C-alpha cells in the first residue's frame, strides 16, 4: 500500500486548504481511506473517512460543516477540502487506509497544517 499526501501549508484562521492523498494498493486493504491528525503523545484523531466504492463520507463532529472529503472519478485520489480553518486544526494530517474503517493504517508520511490566529 502506498499513500502519498500533499497540500499542507500555513494559513490564517478562516482560510482554506485542500489535502490530497494518492492511493495505491490492493482493494481489500484500501476500501476505506481516511484522514487522521496526530499530535505527539496523543492518540490519533479521526478527521474524516470515505468508502472508495460508495464514496460515503464520515466526519468527526469537530469538522462537520467545514471539511469535505471526496474521491476522484478514477478512485485513486482522496481529497480533504478544509474551509474556515481554526487554530485548533493545526496538526500533522495523515492519510490512512484499510479494509474497514476500524482497521485503517497510516502508511503516509503526513502533511503539516498550520493555522494562525
Topology of this protein?
Blueprint: E1 2-6, E2 9-12, E3 17-24, E4 32-38, E5 45-51, E6 57-59, E7 67-71, E8 77-82, E9 91-98, E10 111-116
Parallel strand pairs: 2-10
Antiparallel strand pairs: 1-3, 3-8, 4-5, 4-9, 5-6, 7-8, 9-10
Structure description:
The chain is mainly beta and 117 residues long. The chain has no helices and ten strands. Strands 2-10-9-4-5-6 form a six-stranded mixed sheet, with no helix packed on it. Strands 1-3-8-7 form a four-stranded antiparallel sheet, with no helix packed on it. The chain starts with a strand and ends with a strand.
How many helical elements?
Answer: 0
Overall mean pLDDT stands at 95
Query: What is the strand arrangement across the widest sheet?
Result: 2-10-9-4-5-6
Largest sheet: 6 strands, mixed
* Envelope shape: globular
Task: Please summarize what this structure is.
The protein is mainly beta.
Which properties best describe this structure?
six-stranded mixed β-sheet, mainly beta, four-stranded antiparallel β-sheet, 0% helix
Amino acid at each position: 500500500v502506498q499513500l502519498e499526501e500533499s497540500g499542507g501549508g500555513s494559513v490564517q484562521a478562516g482560510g482554506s486548504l485542500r489535502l490530497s492523498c494518492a492511493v495505491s494498493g490492493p482493494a481489500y486493504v484500501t476500501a476505506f481511506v481516511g484522514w487522521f491528525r496526530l499530535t505527539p503523545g496523543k492518540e490519533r484523531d479521526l478527521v474524516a473517512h470515505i468508502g472508495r466504492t460508495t464514496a460515503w463520507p464520515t466526519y468527526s463532529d469537530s469538522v462537520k460543516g467545514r471539511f469535505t472529503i471526496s474521491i476522484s472519478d478514477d478512485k485513486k485520489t482522496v481529497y480533504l477540502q478544509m474551509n474556515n480553518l481554526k487554530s485548533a486544526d493545526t496538526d500533522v494530517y495523515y492519510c490512512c487506509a484499510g479494509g474497514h474503517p476500524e482497521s485503517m493504517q497510516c502508511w503516509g508520511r503526513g502533511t503539516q497544517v498550520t493555522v494562525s490566529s
